[in-house]
Amino acid sequence: MEKNKPNLDLIFNSIWEELNFGATQRKHPFHLCFMATTSSSLTPESRIVILREVVFDKFLLRSNCDLRSSKANEIKENPKTTLLFYDYEKKIQIRIKSKSHIIEHGQQVQSIWDSSQEISKRCYYAVQPPSSILEKPFTNDLLDFDNKDLGINIFGLIVSKAYEIDYLSLNYDGHVRCRFVIENDVVKSSDWIAP
Ligand SMILES: Cc1cc2nc3c(=O)[nH]c(=O)nc-3n(C[C@H](O)[C@H](O)[C@H](O)COP(=O)(O)O)c2cc1C
Predict the structure, then answer these.
(1) What is the domain partition of the chain in residue ranges?
(2) From CA 34, how far away is CA 23, in angstroms rounded?
């Protein structure tokens, strides 16, 4: 067998291994995820979210959000999301088409909230919902830790189920690009595609 020849199965496994590192290692390039949704006016919207958890055998990726945010409402209206990752050192781009849903309240939300760091929890005590117009620039004075409607009550999970993955690795000898389609928790097709 040709040495170092790219192999689709190995690439697929390496994608999920690296995504898992992204979820568990703060300095890994995949810790930051560029999540795209579609707004009600059909404009594409994208923003950074932190990748918090990956479940390889179910092809799930999780982030956290404020339930009052635009992204949470956009996902409720249209679950189709695209997640984008880039590793600058390895020159690898991963684009994941996914169907996302928002989890509000319940045991899973509670246990993730309980295990979150104080600095992460702090974001969820802002009185004004995300994107509200403010009279002055935001400072932490606008947090209200005694407000019982805030904190865990506006803390939600975004769970995204991958159904198509586009992998691109930039190389001097030729860029390697491939696409994986996932259906019913199995990889239905894997193809090399033109970069
Ligand atoms: C480094 C970084 C990490 C962020 N992580 C999150 C996150 O995990 N969840 C989140 O909802 N917003 C996160 N944000 C803020 C979003 O990018 C965005 O500004 C905010 O959530 C409002 O987005 P929306 O109006 O599209 O809902 C992060 C921003 C930065 C710069």
Answers:
(1) 8-192
(2) 14
